[in-house]
Amino acid sequence: MQESRACFEAMFFCRRKGKMSRSLKKNKIVKIRSLKETKKYGVAATNLKELFKKGSKLLQVPLDGSRICLYEDGTELTEEYFQSLPDNTELVLLSMDERWTGFISDISRLLDTDRNSGPLIDAAKQLLFDEQSPRRRKLLGDLLLHIKDNSETENRSDDEDWFKGVDVRFKTKSAYMRYNCESRIRGYMKEVGSYAQTIQKPKLKDQYKKIAECLVMRLKFDKYNGCYFNRIEKEQQRLCTKEGWFTCQGAFDQNECKSLHSINPYGNRESRILFSTWNLDHRIEKKRTVLPALVEALHNQKNSEISLDYFYKMLFTRENLKLVHIVCHKKGAHDLLCDQKKIYQTGKRKVLC
């Protein structure tokens, strides 16, 4: 009898001790969200089962088949893993058919978001206002720059902010961007013309000026290659996509931009202004190489005619021009030379123009 009573007391004590230990078990506080919302909620739970119940009710996610993952990398939680988590760990509650691969999923969703989303812009502005870290402020500033995208508009009346500071004669974005490119090419032609002042021999200078006049005539016929910046031109003639996105083509000695620079000056006024810092860079340098080669060719020509087409391409076309971000623009000597086989065209001498 005494043994039975002792056994009963031992069992009662163990059960009571278990209940006490469970009641004394510390709550773990986590931050949890659903896949469809970015707002996080603080939840306290002693075990994973309790977290599932509370999270499902709070986030309106069906409990059956649901899973909880780490926000950071998408690792699915087990009870043992849950108990090892530090407080305030960020988690995502998923329904049966949902997937989460970590914070990269948020980036993917951001890229798919309507770029004119007011709430997204407002949220980024608020984060920028509250942020103190210079690095994070720079990242948020860049995000705001590109998320304010009105590239689908074309007319002045549809995006008046884009046209602030732009002459009133321009009624469309494409017309202004075409003019922008033409102005750069005109600037190159002006340099070509002024180079004549460096030539000492009168006869050679006259020959050079005739060549320059022919180049001007060719440029006028080609409308100063303004098509390069005009998104409504044919694909093979423009440097941008039909939406207006330009991609850096990399430094003169590289096949591509390693930093993946891109910009859409059609999107907003800030990008339009920033695009002015991008360069149409001559791979074979204009004043250091191409123009001296032209003068030397004029000086040495005998029975062969100067290839006007070759020098035109080297000075004013994509055959020798690369659009580059200011960071990719190398200002030192390029050490590239003109192709001696293309400078002259053999045969009878013809009219230059």
TrEMBL record:
Superkingdom of origin organism: Eukaryota
UniProt name for this protein: Uncharacterized protein
Species the sequence originates in: Dallia pectoralis (Alaska blackfish)
